[in-house]
Amino acid sequence: MTSHVRYRKDRVGLVDYDTQIKEVRCQLVDQLKVLDVQLEQKSQQLQDLTDYLRRRGEIESEYARSLEKLAERFTSRIKRLDIILWNQLQICPVESRDHSGLSESCSNFLIQPLTQCLEYTQRLAKKSKDICLQLQDGILKATVELQTAWRTYYQYHSDYVYAEGKLKEAEKQEEKQKQSAAKKLERLIEKVNGYTLMQYFRQGKVQDIYLKCSKARNEYILNLAAANATMKKYYFQDISTLIDCADAGYHLSLGQVMQAYLSSRWRTQQNLDTGLQQLQSTVAGLDQRQDRDGLLQDNYNTFCMPLRFPYQPHDGDQVSEVCAECEMRCELETRFTQIQTRLKAVAPETEEVMFIIYDNDLDPGSGLSQEGSTENLTLKPSMARRKANLQEVENIYIIVSLFFDDLMIYNFDLQLVNIQKLDIGWR
């Protein structure tokens, strides 16, 4: 048995069938209202889902066309050497086809089953409601018959109790007459005979009323059992069956439509994940030195070192190497010492600047986390301050890279070579 049925508490004293039947009528009316509300909710749900899928199909179609136009716009302009954008352009057509297929699925294949489901749901609900009305009419008919049999039984039983009381009163009168004095014997015999005839008459009447009362009681008990059986069958079986009939095919159709929608979405998501993984691999393979070497290799003639400047002596001068007297040697050694001291001072400063450059707080992309969150933006300096710091770091980086590092080392090597040459010359 289902657990949705609750028996009402037994009433103390006589059963007021009129009140109970009135409550049953109100309950049956409320049941029809609940079924109507349930149908309205299911219909609204199907209609909303249909509208959502139709609008989703339109949006997916617009998005697919936009992706296709975007890919066509840049495909003719971008060379394959631009790996990141080229991979994006390769993803766009696939993503466009996926969204176009999802649009077709939402606009056509999924809406039609929902429309059919709405039609037969309303049709089955109407039939179930008609059957429910018939069953409720049967319950009301059984309660009316029960009420009629109950009243008839009460009426006959009241008559029987009254007649039985009269009969007992006559029997008491007869006993009193039998105990009278002997001198009134003749008159007593006449009265006794009269009471005896009346007693027989009353006994026959009581028996007749008792028979009618028994028939009325039996009819009442049978109608009571029939009414209770009808109520039990309706509440424990018929209601659940009617609801199941009204919902037949609803959950199955809705589940199939949503499963098809999920399949389309999963397929689109899988293709998108594949493209994103390829793009991630490309991003992970970015190498500044490799790009620099590739640029120099592709433009070798532009960036190749020109021929060395030849030594052109003046008017027969045959000396082609650096040479100096003792005074010049001291000057060169002093210059070498100054350059070496300067390099030792510049090296820590260069390391500190490079550390600042790679600090995350001054990284232009540090404001965006890997997950795309912008919560940490409030913890970073203001945009103007970040821009000023970034420009300062760029200037320092260029100066350090071009002047303090390469130029100083180059000068150091040059002076060292010159001093070594001087040593050779003096020897």
TrEMBL record:
Residues 15-291 form the F-BAR domain. Keywords: Coiled coil. It comes from the Eukaryota. PANTHER family: SLIT-ROBO RHO GTPASE ACTIVATING PROTEIN. This is F-BAR domain-containing protein. It comes from Mola mola.
